[in-house]
Specification:
Number of strands: 6
Shape: globular
Strand content: 15-25%
Number of helices: 7
Structural class: alpha+beta
Largest sheet: 6 strands, antiparallel
Strand order of the largest sheet: 3-4-2-1-6-5
Order of helices and strands: HEEHEEHEEHHHH
Distance between the termini: 38 Å
């Protein structure tokens, strides 16, 4: 089993046109630059930022179920070897990618946003309407349990990030 340190080193060394995914349990996980590529080029998804003591900094990751690799890759080429998967990006997608360090800082800055007190009540009502609308429009009966869980995580993030 690969350590987080070796996974991060492999991601950092991967070519810019590749999204490198590591198999962890029943999920594919993308770290750092690969998480950015997933988020910016493939699908806006739940990002997780966690301080990893062994490497000494916050690590950004994104994950999705093993069974959904084909749908996440879409029309892009991908290959799987052991506990690793690669998704190839087009030249156009690569050209649209932001600088990783700036992107990571922007992701970090989102956690530091605070709502001024006078806007809080209005924002809470607006958020309530948005959340209720999203929940009532979500077709839970046609979704998998994992898709429902990811939807709930998205709602939770929306509430937490307000």
């Amino acid at each position: 089993m690969a350590t987080i340190k070796s996974v991060l080193e492999k991601v950092r060394a991967s070519p810019p046109e590749k999204i490198l995914l590591h198999k962890e349990g029943v999920f594919w996980k993308a770290y750092e630059q690969s998480a950015m590529k997933i988020y910016e080029c493939v699908r806006h998804c739940m990002l997780k930022r966690k301080n990893i003591k062994i490497v000494g900094y916050d690590v950004v990751s994104a994950g999705f179920p093993l069974s959904s690799l084909e749908s996440w890759a879409g029309k892009r080429q991908f290959c799987v070897v052991d506990d690793w998967a690669e998704i190839s990006l087009s030249d156009e997608e690569i050209g649209m990618l932001p600088c990783f360090e700036e992107w990571k800082k922007r992701i970090s800055d989102l956690a530091d946003i605070t709502v001024p007190k006078e806007k809080e009540d209005k924002d809470a009502r607006s958020l309530s309407v948005t959340v209720i609308s999203r929940i009532t429009e979500f077709p839970v009966e046609s979704k998998t349990p994992v898709e429902c869980m990811l939807f709930l995580l998205d709602i939770k993030r929306m509430i937490h990030d307000r």
